[in-house]
Design brief:
Length: about 220
Amino acid sequence: MADSLPALRAAFDGRNDLLALSLADVGDRLADEEAADLLLELGDHVGVGSLGALVESDEAARLLLRGLVAPSRQRLLAALTRLARTTPAHVWRSAPEPSPGVEPPPPTKPALQAWLKKHGIEEWLGAPARQVRPFLQVTLFAEANDSLVTVEDLLEGRGPTSRVARGLTTAYENAARTFLRYRAIRAGKAREREELWNDRPTEPTLRALSVRLHEAMRTL
């Protein structure tokens, strides 16, 4: 596994078929959905849109090293390394579906409550603050005492503080917003899968197989 973004440059050498892809398309090809979201966030922060631009970006390399906690960094690098090792002739089993467009959480509390309800993720507002750690854009003091606060606390500026890392509270607030957007995207994809699951085929043979599959799943 490549241990840094510069190391990935060598892994993707000659893979113009992948380097030319947008980060959204690359994310759709990653089996690890959390890694895909981290990839998109990294691209947004450095202002690049393609995989080729990302692996050549020194700013992205610095942010990946210093801005993501180690487990998240390793997860993203591992997913991209696996992608680099696929063969150019690799055929996907099905065309990847783009991530549903989800607007960022609004800043005001009433609007935020409506946004959470719209996406069906109200329960995540009460999640423990440690849930947002993979989305923190700082590593220094990322393990601060966040066990007694929730995501809602972070959004209201009541997150962990540090005399040394003065921007820690703001970093946690930004991470909380990114985390909620991530949960909204995941919820949207789950609803899409549920709709596809409940959409029975019209062709008789396929419909019969669908009924048997649903019955088998209920038995499990």
